[in-house]
Structure formats: C-alpha cells, structure tokens
Amino acid sequence: MWAEYVLASAIWILVIGILPTILHKTEKPDFLTGIITTSAIAGITTAYGALGLWASAIPSALITLGWLTLTVQRLLINRKAEQPLVQLPRWLTRKDF
C-alpha cells in the first residue's frame, strides 16, 4: 500500500512539472517524442488501472493528457510554420557518409 502512495506522489510531481511546458507558447518537445511518450504513459496508466492502483492511475492519466496536449500543440505549431512533423537530425541527412 505504501508503495502506491510513493508512486502517486512522484507522478503528482510530474503533473506539476509538465505545466510550464504546456503553458509556454512555443517551447514544446518534438512531435515524435510526444507520440512515443504519450503512448508509453498511456500503457503505464492502463497497467495501474488494471492492478487497481487508482491513486497512481489518476495522476498518470493526467500526465498522459498533458503529453497529448503537448503533442497537439507541437502539431499546431509545425502546421502554422509549415514545418514537417518529423525532422531527421542533421547528422542523418549528411551526404558524406
């Protein structure tokens, strides 16, 4: 029982920590990072719920919603700037391999 409260406390700290990024107008993680993180945390949230760890599942669902929000914000920023959703790192696009 105590372990769930430790998990829940840590997740609530993450909920608070993600708020400045959500509220900032332009500083957002890359789109692909958002998709991967949202999917992973949604899976963790599902596992918490399946195990009946509701004190951890609820804030984990909020983190999932937060990352989904960041992903949609990045999508909208990229569309407005007419940038591609996924950009390869420069070292992958060099021609001198």
Condensed summary:
Helices cover 75% and strands 0% of the residues.
What does this molecule look like?
The chain is mainly α and 97 residues long. It has a domain at 28-78. It has four helices and no strands. Helix 1 (2-23) runs parallel beside helix 3 (54-80) and helix 2 packs antiparallel against helix 3 (54-80). The model has no long low-confidence stretch (mean pLDDT 91).
* Contiguous helical run count: 4
Give a short account of the largest sheet: none
Cα separation of the termini: 54 Å
* Unreliable sequence segments: none
Number of strands: 0
Provide the structure class.
Answer: mainly alpha
What integer value in Å does the Rg equal? 17 Å
Based on CA inertia axes, which overall geometry fits?
elongated
**Amount of beta strand:** under 5%
Arithmetic mean of pLDDT: 91
What's the structural blueprint in terms of helices and strands?
Layout: H1 2-23, H2 31-50, H3 54-80, H4 90-93
Helix pairs in contact: 1-3, 2-3
Label this structure with key terms:
single chain; 97 residues; mainly alpha
